Amino acid sequence: MKSMQQAHKLHQKVSTFILSCVGADGYPLTKAVVPAIHRESLSELYFATNTSSKFAAAVSQNPKASVYFYSRKLIFVWKGCYLRGEMEIVTDMAVKERYWDKKYKGAYESGAFTDPDYCLLKFTPKSGRYYANFKIEDFEV
């Protein structure tokens, strides 16, 4: 449980997340994204992308996905967390509005959370692996 608490602390601090899903061709499809504006818990993570993206299309076909995030302060001071679980496309407009960030306006034609190309992804992890100080700990979420 300690490793999950450490992973949660790291999740609150980092500015880039790496998402992976199973692409249409069966190979991993990976992209870097910024986190959603609300980060309450490690048990549900939200990310914005475009409905028209290959990533959203892949998630709609196969929910298996992973999330990785890390921090590097010095040459040998790395902390990282890998989460394995399922990704889904959020259709609830109230949830989409909650996770809308004003910074997204330029990326969407209408500049609003109601834009059809605004896609909110919800990731629900099942298990994780936390790395720090040359040690790895697996945990269940």
Secondary structure: elements and pairs:
Layout: H1 2-13, E1 17-22, E2 28-33, E3 45-50, H2 54-61, E4 64-74, E5 77-90, H3 93-98, E6 118-132, E7 135-140
Antiparallel strand pairs: 1-2, 1-4, 3-6, 4-5, 5-6, 6-7
Which class best fits the helix and strand makeup? alpha+beta
The low-confidence parts are: none
The separation of the N and C termini measures 9 Å
Helix content: 10-25%
Backbone CA Rg: 15 Å
Largest sheet: 7 strands, antiparallel
Mean pLDDT: 93
Q: State the order of secondary-structure elements, H for helix, E for strand.
A: HEEEHEEHEE
Using DSSP, what is the number of strands? Answer: 7
Q: Count the helices. How many? A: 3
Any idea what the shape is?
globular
Strand content: over 45%
What does this structure look like?
With 141 residues, this protein is of the alpha+beta class. Helices cover 18% and strands 45% of the residues. The protein has helices spanning 2-13, 54-61, 93-98; strands at residues 17-22, 28-33, 45-50, 64-74, 77-90, 118-132, 135-140. Strands 1, 2, 3, 4, 5, 6 and 7 form a seven-stranded antiparallel beta sheet that branches. A hairpin with a 2-residue loop joins strand 4 and strand 5 (77-90). The chain is globular, with a radius of gyration of 15 Å. The N and C termini lie close together (9 Å). The relative contact order is 0.24. The mean pLDDT is 93.
